[in-house]
Amino acid sequence: MDTDFEQYANHPFFRYLDNINEFAITAAVPPVGAPLWNDPKFISVVTEKAYDYLREVIKGSDFYYESELSLYRDASGFGVRYADDEYGFRVLFREGQILIRRAGSNFRTFHDWFTRFMSAGQGIVTKATGILSESCERRIDVLQASFDFEFIVYDITPEGSNASVRNPEIMKTLIKTWPGTTGVVSDDLDVLNTVARADFAVHRWADVRDMKCLERYSISAPANNRWNSLWFEFQLRGESYTDPENGKRTAFNPTAFLNAYDDAYITFLRGKAILGFMNSLLAGHRFKSTPSSLP
Predict the structure, then answer these.
(1) Is this prediction's pTM over 0.90?
(2) How far is it, in rounded angstroms, from Cα 124 to Cα 129?
(3) For the chain, domain boundaries
(4) What is the radius of gyration, based on Cα positions, of the chain?
(5) Is residue 253 within 8 Å of 240, Cβ to Cβ?
(6) Rounded Cα gap, residues 33 and 42, in angstroms
(7) What are the 10-residue block averages of pLDDT along the chain, 295 residues in total?
């Protein structure tokens, strides 16, 4: 992927959206099952093999500093962590899941990490399933997979004004009516002022190369920070597909899906999620974004 950040962010909206809150690739796999999954020897074999493979990925991405790789185990699972201050990420094994996770950062750094990492790193999930298969002597393959992007924006104000905007005002674009004191839906302003939290999510099928994939657009408007933040989650997911017209089923191709990382990042995230959904929802407003928790 040879798109530089100036080309990717060549739109006024990126003046405000200068941070990403979290990124993950999530793969659903068959469960290994107890007691093997909790066996220290099994965990050691899996993480050591993953560590050796990630050394090659780090070098292939020109990140180097292999000394920042380490094995870990915590309440969430076990895996390998790359603790580099700019290009850090972790590979996590959970029962029934394999994840590649990267914490939030400024968007430019994320772009640099993603475009350098994915050409080598997209094979991590496939390699991880192979490691699990070898270690438990069973067939472990990818059943579903997704690219997940999260953003938090706050301090939302109209262009040309310092007046604060409550997030339910933004959500009115998506949710036209709200349940009132009796439960009856209404668009009355007094009802809107009682809203403590609003959530909106929609899934839609889209064509990605020769595949049918699910796009998920999700937004939450919580009451914290004086109703002045919006939490966005965008997901491109690959799974088996059933044609609603004729009932024909198409098997999920995990290799083809994971190789479509540029479609996930450019066509879906930039073109649809950011410049389509977020931009149309926040048109006429300024805001800030955060790579971690709300300040």
Answers:
(1) yes
(2) 9
(3) 23-145, 146-290
(4) 21
(5) no
(6) 12
(7) 90 97 98 94 97 95 96 95 97 98 98 93 93 96 98 96 90 91 87 85 97 98 90 98 96 97 98 98 96 93
